[in-house]
Amino acid sequence: MSSPTPDADRLVDRGHLLTEQANPASRNLDQLSPLAFVDLVNAEDQKTLSAIAGAREDLAEAIALTAAALREGGRLFYIGAGTSGRLGVLDASECPPTFCTSPELVQGIIAGGAGALVRSSEGLEDIAEDGETVIHEHRLHEHDVVVGITAGGTTPYVHGALKAAQQRGATAIFMACVPQDQVSTDYDVDIRLLVGPEILAGSTRLKAGTATKMALNILSTGVMVQLGKVYGNRMVDVSVTNTKLRDRAIRILKDLTNLDRTAAGDLLDRSGQRVKLALLMHWGDLTPNQAEECLNRHHGQLRQAVNSLKDPKR
User: Are residues 24 and 160 in the same domain?
Assistant: First the structure.
């Protein structure tokens, strides 16, 4: 791996960036009582909701493009450094248990690799070539999507990755917490989460990190809804891998079928621990194979499969 070197890009003054500016509301931060400190943080965190609202259309576009790409066999990659990279890895790691996706479908990449999750390696964010390399190593193609996350908008590692992704025909989505007039881009989707200066100047693990986590929650959940991983507001593709998740699966079946707990557990077992399949088996009086064939005909969309039971022509 390359080692960071002091080049022209690293020496640019970034004091003009929104994420680097001092917040007037916290100028006496070191003099606040614990309660006053908590109140200030709470007041500033309200701005994360406005930031998400301001990016609503771009987030919706990102959901639509990503869902369409994944339907064609693509993958979703989050890439970032420091806090931004950790948030991407976190969101990616939560998709398999929540939506029963393969670990390859949604992946998080952080500058410095797995070790950077627990040990600071922010110096590696300055190497654009490493971002390019990791894209080539993952053999991205035109159906893949890369979300580059950088609070301040200037991280060379992220821009190197996004440009390499575009060159390979993948969809490039940019997510930052600075306005476009401070950092301009030409990526496919440009998501700006404008939370303003942090109470601790430059510490983007605060509001910027919170808004980024919220945006990633919206993006990944929205994509999974579009892919049929949800019925109503239930996670019908939940991966039943422990006692808590089995309990959740049984409760979903109970609530949606009016079966008692024992019968719901038996139904879950007969379905091979697949809630979506269990529901279709129960509602259509189908065998597991019949239910699976029906789901496959409707590309895993439970609601469409259920509607087809009412109208055999569908």
Answer: yes
